Amino acid sequence: MINQVTKVQTSNLTVHYPNSEKPALDSVTMTVLQSSFYTILGPNGSGKSSLLKAIMGLVKPRTGNVSINGLSLSHWTRPALAKEVAVVPQSETFAFPLTVRELVAMGRYPYLRSFQSETIVDQKAISASLKNCDIEHLVNRQLSTLSGGELQRVRIARSLAQEPEILILDEPTANLDVRYEMSIFNLLKTLTVEGMTIILITHHLNLASEFSDHLLLLSQGKVVATGTPKEVLSESKLRDAYEWPIEVATNPAIGGPQIRPLSTVPKVPHRGPGNSQTDSQE
Question: Are strands 197-201 and 166-170 parallel, antiparallel or unpaired?
């Protein structure tokens, strides 16, 4: 049996923000193996973003531990961590006008000393990331001229230019059309085949089912379920997490779960003549 390497691990992680009655995360344990496509699911406010922030060291947990490559997060320096882990946040603003290449080149900053010019190694990494994200034709474009899908691929290319072993993405396909959405998920899946580890937040349950190796389902800061898509995406677990009736069938194309939220809009009674008493009571 091949020994699978653990890339990211949290143990009984609890995050409690000041002035909040309940913890954002409550004893969350997760294990992410090398080259896996690991997806974090859950309704709004379930703790998904807090979990990513804790993994990145942006929030300090009240209890528990985060480790990267078996080393506690507290033992990593920021430059060393930037070479191991790249992050694509949900959104960001750019203070200055930038071209596509200038933004992608920023991914090389962990490798450059102050005032050091790009080396041949840096240039090759930048070119490779532009090619992987199919944005070579955009290299001289200003970011302000790009569509949402184009800009998202540029942001992913910047992260790939870091040459990380772990790529973390927070809703990378939010507000994108089907073409860009599918191209990004296919790119991420290809990266795992090439050895990269992907940790991703998404609200797209069916895409999570199709592309993920492992899922973590959160609700109110707690783990509802963890495992393969077939193990996690059951009607009962999804209903418990999302508090909404959900039907799960088998997707014949992939053999995995296919999710369909059910409509439970209450029927409004017909108000004809003589219903004025009902109207006044409402």
Answer: parallel
